[in-house]
Description:
The protein contains 9 helices and no strands. The protein has helices spanning 3-30, 45-51, 65-70, 74-80, 82-85, 120-123, 131-139, 141-144, 158-169. It starts with a helix and ends in a 31-residue tail after the last helix. Residues 81, 83-84, 86-88, 98-100, 102, 105, 110-113, 118-119, 121-122, 129, 134, 137-138, 148-152, 155, 164 line the site of heme C (HEC).
Amino acid sequence: MDSFEVNKVAGGVLGTLLATMGLGLLAGWLYSPAEPGKPGYDLPLAAAETAGAGDSKTAAPAKPLPVLLASASVEKGASLAKACGACHNFEKGAAAKVGPPLWGVLGRPVGGVAGFGYSEAIKGKGGDWTLDKINAFITSPKGYAPGTKMTYAGEEDPQKRADILDYLHTLSDNPQPLPAVTDAAPADALPASTEPAKKG
Ligand code: HEC
């Protein structure tokens, strides 16, 4: 091999290298990856957070119950309560089904239907059913009364619950007035002792 031929080979090798480099540059320029605007993945955080909301304590509703009740509809409630009707009777004097009859449930002692086999979870509650308590119970029966026999998943929508409560409230010979919207702030959320002095 003379030097001329060595040069030819060297030239060939260099040429190939240059062409490869050039192609690499060209390819990089042609197929430059799109930079993500925000690195990372979008996790379904909001969904996960709301899913855990109804655990042992019901999450504070965005709107207080009296406000929701003020715009609730008895007709919508009656229709939504058909889901409850699978297990509950609503008519006066009606017997228990899977669950106790719900005529007059507001103001009735919790677990108060004589002869109905309530769970310990309900029997242990004490007190009377109020709109707030039923609201909490039907938000998540298992969250409100762990071990309850009421195998109802719960109604997530606060307005739908208010409609149901509005309807339940009519199931009485003597329906009590619904809470006034001006009393909306729950008393225990803002104890009198820490309430800032009102101006004016
Ligand atoms: C799958 C059947 C089922 C469905 C659906 C159901 N419940 Fe119940 N409910 C029960 C059972 C069973 C009990 C008794 C619970 C216990 O003893 O733990 C009960 C208890 C109750 C109580 C307590 C009554 C008392 O006398 O203390 C209320 C209030 C109530 N249910 C309201 C509702 C409402 C409102 C709905 C619809 C949004 C509903 N339930 C849907 C089965 C059901």
